[in-house]
């Protein structure tokens, strides 16, 4: 029995993870325009987009609990790849609004299995190398999203609406085959178990609740904008399908760069809470000015700035979600955090879709911008309360 994996095992796992996310994201930029082309209203588009997050909210905790109960990760990875394959092929083989909703729901179930991916990959490494493992797999996720989303518009322009779905489905087939050969250690250290008895104590942690609320707002913004209605808006102001790749590059590259900038420059200089305030404020600003843009160049500039702002948020919130949690309960906190932020992934696009149907597509951007303002105000309020409490304690100490 091998205590750790071989280099070959790790490469196979990373390749499977890459195929998993490419398959899920290769059609993301054209999904909302595709549903509109089928005759879907803004409300229905919002429902389809939100189904991805809803399925994660419903299935992520049960999958984590079941995985810990049977002490196996690989079956859920295979399940995730199968659902990814089924999602892409169902999109490709059908041409109706109802099946579009079903197909995207399948993708949400697939994404809910990601917790098993991260747990199994971390078991390939010694405890001292866990951060290296998470860095590697996070890079694969960003790379897969960037490549998949960047190719989407070009593929549609060359071969039509269904081509990205076919490619995603075929990549899902290959990924499913790869997943059958993934190595799972016989003895898995359960580090990310989601224990029911710990849920209540974990969700009462004040910092986790605050960070989860902010993450709900942040995920609402990104799944309403770049992962939602930005591609449709770009086509409405005169851009072509092939131009969507440029818009994706404009957003995703600064988005990835910001993750490095955040940890090495911004946070050490201004602190975590001020960093969040800056990032949410500028994300709100650039989202709310989007409806005033009617040229490709300006849209690329604004999306780059928004991508950078939002790129500051997610890794910072991820780290803060567990920093106040004891080591033995951090996995439970992470599972809880991931399930909670999925609320933003389905409520944001759904509400934006309703508003867009009632008022017009610009309403969704104003709505998302206001969510950023709400997050900024909440952070300022919490900081004010913290400073007031600190001053009060200092005053009492001085008097005594």
From TrEMBL:
The chain crosses the membrane at residues 12-30, 42-63, 75-94, 106-125, 137-156, 162-183, 207-232, 244-263, 275-293, 299-318, 339-359, 365-384. Pfam families: MFS_1. Residues 9-387 form the Major facilitator superfamily (MFS) profile domain. Keywords: Cell membrane, Membrane, Transmembrane, Transmembrane helix, Transport. GO terms for molecular function: transmembrane transporter activity. It is a multi-pass membrane protein. Gene3D superfamilies: MFS general substrate transporter like domains. GO terms for cellular component: plasma membrane. It is found in: Cell membrane. The keyword Lipid metabolism does not apply. It comes from the Bacteria. This is Putative MFS family arabinose efflux permease. It comes from Anoxybacteroides tepidamans.
